[in-house]
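As a representative case, the lines below give one protein's residues and fold tokens.
***
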Amino acid sequence: MARPLGRLHPMAVSADPVELARPAAPDRAAAPVRAAGVTVTRSRSGRLWVVALALVAALVAVPVLALLWQAARGSQGLWSHMLAHVLPQAVSQTAILLAGVGVLVTVIGTSTAWLVTAYDFPGRRWLEWLLLLPLAVPTYIIAYAYLDILHPLGPVQTAIRALLGFDSPRDFRLPDIRSMTGGILLLGLVLYPYVYLTTRAMFVTQAANLVEVSRSFGVTRRGVFLRVALPLARPAIAVGVSLALMEALNDIGATEFLGIRTLTNSIYTTWVTRSDLPGAAQIALVMLAVVVALVVLERWARRSQRYWTNAQRARPLARHRLGRVAGLAALGLALVPVLLGFVFPALHLSIVAFRRVQVSGISSRLAGEALNTVILAGSVTAVVVAAGLLVAFVTRAFQSRTTAALGRIAAIGYAMPGTVVAIGILIPIAALDRSIDAAAREWFGVSTGLLLIGSGAALSYAYFVRFLTIGSGGVESGLARLPRSYDHAARCLGRGSCGTLCHVHLPLCRAALASAALLVFVDCMKELPATLLLRPLNFETLATHLYGEAARGTYEEGAIAALLIVAVGTLPAMLLARIGGKPN
């Protein structure tokens, strides 16, 4: 899914230090010590808060360190085998996929954002939030749906043959969607909202005087877009493209269904099929290097962010009213990605699911899997939001280089694909399981087996690492709206750090907490790679159920699960539609 933007993602949050004002009352929080332009509060309670933040950061860092250790201890000849037979194809396929998806999401996201921002036409207000709906469709679900829609015996090809007078697929059939081209198109159709949302937020607040000056010099509207608006929006585009590419890199279902062998699929095959954990760790290390390269590239593209954000103080851009014909053409053009990326797949899944329910009803197996999904996602959401609150509060209340560094470490999990997180977690958790089992055998004469992996604790840990940034980013966005004078007033009234958090921050940030919880819950429901690799035996979620049905080719069986995931995924899409830009 849908993943969060702006302050909900580590790459979209400014890392500039903000100086904390001196507390007014020298109560239980000790006097601040100023060093290098940053105020650090040295007290026992302050140290405990920082230690708690360090523990959270350590939990996130453990998978990365374990991955490095496992990759380093692999056999010497394994790297040569990987370099000769596995990595060339996987890296080339991944690079082609990322390049194609990057171009497609940039074109669709930027053009639609400019269209609904710079022009006024019938249906524009509806388009502003309709264009976000494809974000509710996970990548593996759109591949699953279109494999059935465009199947030689599916509705589209059957209708075309009927119109052309052909009776058999041997007489006429469309090109197979199982290809690199199909993968780029389908992933681009559901990932472009990342670019649309960040770029539209930029265009909405762009200075109108810049456009008016350009127009006064005789620049056409097309020239204004290409020579003024687009250069100013490059940092926002870079953020959205980076998010989309990391989602494409994290995908395992869509590429598997479409026959594309990416690094993610190579990790899964090496680990599960060949039982080669060191080899999978080494491929995951290469994948982690790709993620780091994406982050560095995004940072480089945003190096001039201060330039375009200063223009946001000016009055907003005035829209140009289109004529009836041009307006209808703009509406139809902008509706294409909505129809292809959301309406058609959701409609097809609804029809297939309805037919399935009519024939055999809803199986108890699916109900149990839905319950597993809700319980797992709900429990992880509670822990993630609580830990996110801790991270956001400590980095706000006790500003220093240490807390800033710990906050950045706690945010790295979201940038890691699910397969990388799963391998990094399996290594220490499996070692801990073996230690617990050995101790239980020695002390009590019983075997605990794979206690942590078998109970789902490892999977919950993977969700925690992956989605902690969403929780902390959501809370941070809420805390950023509170003036620091509130904190100082609470200190003057004798409230310590805990009292300020409980009596000031929490009541005023309930909406931000609820939004963060919703986003984390939906992302947990949709997560496929980590769930496939770390779920206990005989434990299925809606995502793994859908993956299994698609792998067997029984699309009707998985339609209900897919529809449930899409229906729940529309909630954060609607939320983002409300906060994605200023009201119009």
Summary: The chain has a mean pLDDT of 80. Residues 269 and 280 are 8 Å apart (CA to CA). Residues 75-362+558-584 form a domain with the MetI-like fold fold (CATH 1.10.3720.10).
